[in-house]
Amino acid sequence: MKIGYLGTGSWGFCLANLLASKGYDVVSWTTNPALANQLNTQRIHPRFPGILAPPNMRFTTDLEETLNHADVVVESVTAAGIRPVFEQVRDAHVPTTPIIITSKGIEQDTTLTLPEVALEVLGASFNPLIGFISGPGFAQEIIHGLPTSVVGTAFDQALIPLVCETFTHKSFRVYPNADIIGVALGGALKNIIAIACGISDGLNFGQSARAALITRGLHEIRKLAVAKGCKAETIYGLAGMGDVCLTCNSTMSRNFQFGQLLAQGKTQEEAFAEIGMVVEGAYSCIAAMQLLEKLHVPMPITEMVYKVVHKDLKLQEAVQLLMQRTVKEEHL
Predict the structure, then answer these.
(1) How far apart are CA 38 and CA 256, in angstroms?
(2) Nearest-CA neighbor of 144 among 173, 174, 171?
(3) What is the CATH number of the domain that holds 293?
(4) Which residue from 30, 136, 181, 203 could staple onto 246, CB 3.0 to 4.6 Å apart?
(5) pLDDT tens digit sequence for 31-69
(6) 149 and 27, same structural domain?
(7) What sign does the dihedral 173-179-184-185 (CA atoms) show?
(8) Considering the entire predicted model, what is its pTM?
(9) Are 282 and 258 in contact (CB under 8 A)?
(10) Residue 185 belongs to a domain
(11) Could you list the active site residues?
(12) Residue ranges of the chain with pLDDT lower than 50?
């Protein structure tokens, strides 16, 4: 089976490597000619020194070469980049083949999840063909074969077994879940809560504060997901709680690191430069604010992260605003 893979960042290279290790013929597309040449000749990704790309992985800047005769297309670009990439895919006459989204985020202004963005760009006829995977997974661990479990989903339930089968590996367990929008929201919103946890950690607020942020943050995600018509159970599973637990508790998380750096007094630009990769939570918190205002769902932690990152709200003022909110009975 041929996999046409869109994106060769850390996450894209990691999952493409996993698919190649299963014996699939993987052709990975990048817009960076120097990176494509390095990967084809040296076989080593700059983010993963010492990890050789399998011989059945090829790298190209030619999108049509990637898509041509692909049995499955997989996407791993940024939330901001997914629309322009799929516009290119559409214009390159994408084959009528399953497309699996692996990026996490919400698009600004449209407030669409990333599977919805792909569907809007490609057209309604692709509804039975678009799938999605999400859950707890760091590229740095998966690339070394460390075990984890995620969920596979799709707009059409008939596609879910193929999504799960494509990615299931001896160290990568994929559970089926039919709630694609709930899965996508869990993966996107947990990045915002991770920024809050990083800020808390950077301010030396301790483990208790982080546990409270994680619990109330998960509650916010559930409220928004349910308001969107999703299942609460999805948010309590791997795509919600599982991903929250991972991303909110580790300095390996870019979003957690970003929060820490803000707490240390770094500007947003300085923090981005130090991390050197996209911080999806900083992008998605704008879309999350637009969505919660549209649905009239109170999400105080998300709102404070948005104001700190994009409205220059002082950290201590944000903390005071959260701690001084009217206390209500805990509702789960």
Answers:
(1) 30
(2) 171
(3) 1.10.1040.10
(4) 136
(5) 999 999 999 999 999 999 999 999 999 999 999 999 999
(6) yes
(7) negative
(8) 0.96
(9) yes
(10) yes
(11) 190
(12) none
